[in-house]
Specification:
The chain is mainly alpha-helical. It contains two helices and four strands; from the N terminus they run αββββα. It has one domain. The longest helix is centred in the C-terminal third of the chain and has 57 residues, at 45-101. The chain is elongated.
Length: 102
């Protein structure tokens, strides 16, 4: 099974490489980007697409890390509260058991 997975992964990488190579060769026209009064340097369209993809991946990783850190902090806080309630419940049970036996 590992052998099939390894070869499938390699095949997918080759397909991605070929598609990227075709996209880069088809989009080699130099274009500047304009936003309000700002005009960027002229780059091939493929470079702009690659830059947008990389920035999207990086922003996704940053936002995912931030979201996961916040969720983990909430889980830790909830776990501490559950432990405190459990300890209080155990203490209450321990105090009530001798009273019932007497």
């Amino acid at each position: 099974m590992n052998l099939v997975r390894k070869w499938l992964f390699r095949f997918v990488l080759v397909v991605i490489f070929v598609v990227t190579l075709l996209a880069a060769s088809d989009n080699s026209q130099q274009v500047p980007l304009r936003f309000l009064d700002y005009q960027s340097p002229e780059w091939p369209i493929s470079w702009w697409m690659l830059t947008a993809f990389v920035l999207g991946v990086l922003l996704g990783v940053v936002f995912n890390t931030w979201s996961n850190a916040r969720l983990r902090m909430n889980v830790r806080r909830a776990t501490r509260e559950v432990e405190q309630v459990g300890q209080a419940l155990d203490k209450t049970k321990a105090e009530s058991v001798p009273a019932i036996q007497n």
